[in-house]
Predict the 3D structure of the following.
Amino acid sequence: MSLRPDNAYEIVQDYEEQFAYRLGREVLHKPETSVWMIVIPILFVHHMYRVNKYKTGVRSFANGIMAPRKKALNKAFEEISDQIPDETLPAEEYFPELDTLPDHDPGLLDRQVQVINIFKSHYRKLLSANGTTYAELLHEAYPTSQKYKEFIRKVNHGERDLNQYLAKNIHDSDESRQVVHRLQDQSIQLREEEIHFFYNQTGKKKRRKG
């Protein structure tokens, strides 16, 4: 069944939001419970306060992860709707407010835009595919796991370059750098799980049916 790009847009956006929340839960540390909370109720109150802060942190983290991906998804949708060929776009196309931000970091911006362009090309494939679920869109866009792994390698390389720059030039505290490193490691891990879920399992099911 063929979908209009706006229907595929919703499917892709929903999936990416779920991915961002999963990533946030893996990167940020959730407060641990203790048996002492039963004996000393005030500890439970403090624990719930920390849990609420954790949930807020995950939400903010996910929103931060989604912001550049939303730019890529919106631009991909716009290009497909207007029948514009896929091209690597400059920073101004994604950040029209650059003129009002004279103190931005050019090195950081270049790396961020590189990652956004990688995602834009990826989203164009998904939005142009036929399917009613994310899995169907993904298999239409990337018929084999090897083709999908090519995208994964590109995005991992781009994000690694971006995160290394962040750790070296922007986040100067040990805690911040640890978060950046966990972000990189967990992103790679979740994408490996994606490959297994969408290709290995599906492939096994198809072979069994055949």
About this structure: The mean pLDDT is 83. The chain is about 80% helix and 0% strand. The two ends are 22 Å apart (CA to CA).
